[in-house]
Amino acid sequence: MLEFSYLTAHLEFNTPMELPYWMGSTFRGGFGIYLRKACCPNTNRDCHTCPQKDRCIFYHCHMKTESKHGHAPPPKPITIIPPFYGKTLSVQENGYLDIDILLLGQFAQYIPHTVLALRLLGQAGLGDKRHIGINRYTLTDIECRISKRTVYDGQTVKPQNMKTIDIQELKPIPTTRNLAIQFRTPFVSKTGSLPKTLDRLTWHIRQRVIHYVNEYGDTTRVPDYEIDAQTTQINEQYCRLARRSTRSGKQEYHAHTGVIKHRIARMNRTARWLLKTGQIIGAGPKASFGCGHIQIDNTPTKRSEPDADAGQK
User: Fold this and answer.
1) Could you tell me if residue 47 is left (phi over 0), alpha (psi between -120 and 50 degrees) or otherwise beta?
2) Are strands 3-13 and 165-166 parallel, antiparallel or unpaired?
3) What is the rounded CA–CA span in Å between residue 306 and residue 311?
4) DSSP category for residue 137
5) Disulfide check for 266: which of 111, 124, 216, 228 has CB 3.0–4.6 Å away?
6) Are 125 and 33 in contact (CB under 8 A)?
7) How many whole angstroms from its chain centre is CA 25?
8) Which domains does the chain have, with CATH numbers?
């Protein structure tokens, strides 16, 4: 259906760090600048007329505007997912930061370009504060979250240590009666709030899976799911995200983070698989900025309790 690799990069700052409230656009923009330097022999050429564009990771990550299926802009094959603290981050010395990296389909092979771009970005510095000599970091290492092995050790890229799997291989979350969804990065939606029901969140995950499978997978139909759950608690925080680009100018997004708890009456295996998949790829729009990533806290059902998805295939 869709192959992916999931990595965590460790950054150590050798200058004071003053990182913005939201780092999604900061990393995407900076990474894009140096990704082009890492792979393009002629940065003055127009990407859309370049004969090599179909094999160019920069073009697919930052310039391509048409999807293989549908009219929406294509999802990006490499996504950097920085943490969201809900505040600006300031550390005078010995600062560090971990970021997750999601690579989709055949684009996992571009791990050397990804490493070089992150290294160049670290040398230049992150965001506007780089101009005053801060926010410069060293890429110390990158670990594969699937194989648990080192893909980059600070000097050498080891692609043989990076494991790529199909999302169909992900094991569904355990059967549970109580489930808490933590939105660890801001969730953006047209409704202007978090998905309050578990059914709606799962719908958002499925839509992102469909988008990815159609662009970088084999276009297999993503199965439907069944959920019967009651929302028991909502803790929601509003965040306003701002970004600026040369093509679209300044933009603002209204987003939310928080924790929502649910009581499960019934949830079939497909629903539990989609929730597990959502922990990797996230949910909702603005995927390229690392938005909509979740963490699930669940208590497995005791053997004395009936199975919440009993009788469901």
Assistant:
1) alpha
2) antiparallel
3) 11
4) E
5) 228
6) no
7) 12
8) 3-166 (no CATH), 170-300 (3.30.70.1900)
Q: What confidence tens digit (pLDDT) does each residue in 219-230 have?
A: 999 999 999 999
Distance separating alpha carbons of residues 179 and 147, to the nearest angstrom? 27
Tokens of 134: 């801060």
Best CA proximity match to 281, nearest among 57, 53, 102, 28: 102
The residues that bridge with 137 in the sheet, in sequence order, are 13
Which residue type, as a one-letter code, is found at position 103? L
Please enumerate in sequence order all residues whose Cβ is within 8 A of that of 69, keeping only pairs 6 or more positions apart, or say none.
Answer: 214, 215, 219
Rounded alpha-carbon distances, angstroms, from residue 53 to 45, 63, 126, 216, 245:
11, 9, 27, 16, 21
Residues 75 and 29: their CA atoms lie apart, in Å, by 16
Contact, 216 vs 287, CB < 8 A?
no
In the sheet with 249-267, reading across from the earlier edge strand, the strands are 227-245, 249-267, 176-188, 294-300
- Tokens 């069944």 map to which residue? 226
Q: Which helix (H) or strand (E) holds 31?
A: helix 24-39
Burial class of 221 by CB neighbour count within 10 A (0 to 12, 13 to 18, 19+): exposed
Flag whether the pTM goes above 0.85.
Answer: yes
Residue pointed to by tokens 């079939």: 268
Distance CA 186, CA 280 (A): 15
CB atoms within 10 A of CB 298: 18
